[in-house]
UniProtKB/TrEMBL annotation:
Organism this protein belongs to: Aspergillus ellipticus CBS 707.79
Molecular functions per Gene Ontology: protein-lysine N-methyltransferase activity
Boundaries of every SET domain copy: 38-279
Protein's name in the database: SET domain protein
The organism's place on the tree of life at top rank: Eukaryota
SUPFAM superfamilies, sorted: SET domain (SSF82199)
Amino acid sequence: MANATADFASSPNKNESNLTPYTTLLTWTLQHGGHLHPSVQIAQDAQRGIHLQVARDWPSRVPTDTHLIKTPLSTTISYFNAIDRPSTPASPVAFPAHGLHLPPKFMEAVGPKETAIFFLMGQYLKGEDGFWFPYLRTLPDPRDLTTPVFYEGEDLRWLEGTSLAAARSQREVVLRERFERGMGVLGECGWKGRVGFTWELYLWASAIFISRAFSAKVLSGVIPEEEAREENVSVLLPLIDMGNHRPLAKVEWRAGDDNVAFVVLEDVSAGEEISNNYGPRNNEQLMMNYGFCMPNNPCDHRIVSLRAPPGSPLQIARAHQLQMYPELGGEVEDHYYVFNVFYPLLAPDSSMEHSIFSPALLDAVSVLAANNRELETLEIASHGIKIPNVYGNSRALLAAMSQVIIELITHALKLRSTGLDLQHPTNLKQTHAKIYRESQIMLSETALVIAAWTLHRARLHRFTGSWEETKQVLGAHLARVPAGRFPDEIMSKVQVRILERKSLLTHNGELFTLKEVPDLLPVEMQQPCKAWFQDVLSVSENAIPMLTDSGESSPFAFPMFMCLVVAIHTASQSGAVEGVTLPSRLSRWAGFLLENYPAPPNDVAWAVEDEDDEYLLSQFDEAIDGLRTQNPRVFARLEQYTGEWRKDDWWLSPNWLRWASMIGEQECVQVPEDPLSLLATGGGGQLRLSTENFLYIPQE
């Protein structure tokens, strides 16, 4: 390695399959004052590679709070070595550069993190003559690195359709810009040591820092906090960085005055692997930064890319938020996540929906899906923007869940369709990419089951929500998931999440078809109402070609019901009819509509903005006038409930119909039709996703 070149041709560890480089590293570490607990041994196997474990013949469990490894500060690599930081009375440990001195102008220009990367490149090129040679020879060369920036050729196909494909391209562009800028500054400085500083070597050095470096907090025992800010300084810890990642492993890195200690905070048994914990990383973060992922990662979650288009309610609300709270610094971090059903880092009181969809995600989608009435209640605080949970606003949640379901279906289908011919990986990169793809599909499809349950409840009008009834109805819902689609433990966890956590949806049965809404009326009104709908819809279908065979899906169906309910409510409130009382749910709803959408005037003719809609409404007006003249009994049989209908400003006049039509666009919810049908498909071809329009009538 003394004559190492940028193509890593002479890297000595690439053909070594034994533990010699690692035992040499251990010896070197101990010589500089390091420590390895006598229970710990370096091991290797096909599944875990090089790793640390408690010796199988160790007579007892290693107890919690045991210092297993101590890495001397003198063997760490960081920006402080690059600047050849001397010891001081306040910081008695020196961080020498060991013969590699980058130009001060360069380090000032590129900053601490880039300086550390270029410093590592220079130390690598020193080969066997370098101080850190025992450590560097244990690091993987580019042929062994599996982060996406090292994918090429056939491997890239395994990233198609995933968010990693774009993330890889973006990172490569950023790294290329940083490399070229750094090399340019070195050239301006006339520094001859840059010979051998190739793009390939830079890519390797940056990958090492990204995948293996620790927070600057590990130096807090000797470096003041103002010097070692986490966003600026990363530290390589030889020996400690050998540990493999295990989510939720209880470990700690303790900063000392001459070493960094790796401490276990749980008992470890003989023969058990000693794992590190990189934090609650999802599979995308593990792939992007470390080059691997886990098929059953409990911390897995998907980051949803949700745009706030210019002029959208969400974008406007965000702008107001930044004006109201200047301490946010002009930018608010998005936390739009879909969690897996085993995600362990949830607040105990998180709702069922928030256990799968982050509050920020549902709040943001609710704002985008909100109608004008709901937006008037919008709450903007420093910690978030949301539609409050008050009477009439559960419609926004249902609309948001519908949009979330469409996104989940689209995401899963895209991954399945782009991965149809990616079934048999031929190398480690492709193997991890396959695990990643499958974990992403699993995230979306299990989330789909839970989101569909919330919308399903909105369609259950006689569902009391009792424990026994919930288990029965939920059982029928889960039975629609094809057998074997998910492992039993996942299906069980889905059921537990639904049964044990309270839903954001306070009430069931708030979405209706036209066939269902008459059942909300008093019993004596139901049959006359149904007959009236049948007559009016039949006449309008015959009179208006565009409505042929529209039936209950007629665009005038829900507006007519709104006009009818408001007419009955108004007539009973004014005393125009006697002995007529709407159920409290419909009476409150009618008053709520009139409060939020003032009644149309009598002296001005209304028209809707869209010319095609106005033309259709005009045709419907003519059909209704003809029906009133030719078959007056159709409206006469409702007169005892609605009051007078022969005057110009009657309850289904052109103005009232336009009023209700405009409200209908605001108060209905488009729901994906049979969303769980996706789970019964093989994933190939195109899935036609239809939606159904439901009228939202809130519970009291």
